[in-house]
Task: inverse folding
């Protein structure tokens, strides 16, 4: 009975981790930041230039990503260099793009079918 409770607890912990993880990704600017960092480590200024956003908003979003261990920052003199904490995040972004494309294809097919039945 003890092990069943442990397994249930671990499953709930994993579900909570996933919910928190995806919640941290649930902002377009955070996704842009991750896409920029998927090309290698960058400073805040380099990230700002890449995405064309002001410093305070980029720093704010980086703080959220750091708090969930999605990105890591290391000091380099008077600046912080950011990188992805896990290279699998790149795969996750690619898979999300593929899911989007699949849903778009399905929507286009539905619209085509809808237009042909109206004629």
Result:
């Amino acid at each position: 009975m003890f092990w069943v409770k442990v397994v249930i607890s671990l499953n709930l912990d994993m579900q909570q981790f996933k919910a928190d993880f995806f919640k941290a990704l649930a902002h377009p600017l955070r996704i842009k930041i991750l896409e920029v960092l998927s090309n290698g480590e960058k400073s805040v200024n380099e990230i700002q230039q890449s995405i064309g956003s002001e410093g305070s908003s980029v720093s704010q979003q980086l703080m959220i990503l750091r708090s969930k261990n999605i990105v890591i920052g290391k000091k380099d003199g008077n600046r912080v260099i950011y990188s992805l904490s896990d290279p699998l995040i790149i795969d996750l972004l690619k898979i999300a793009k593929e899911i989007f494309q699949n849903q778009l294809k399905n929507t286009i097919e539905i619209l085509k079918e809808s237009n042909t039945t109206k004629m």
About this structure: The mean pLDDT is 89.
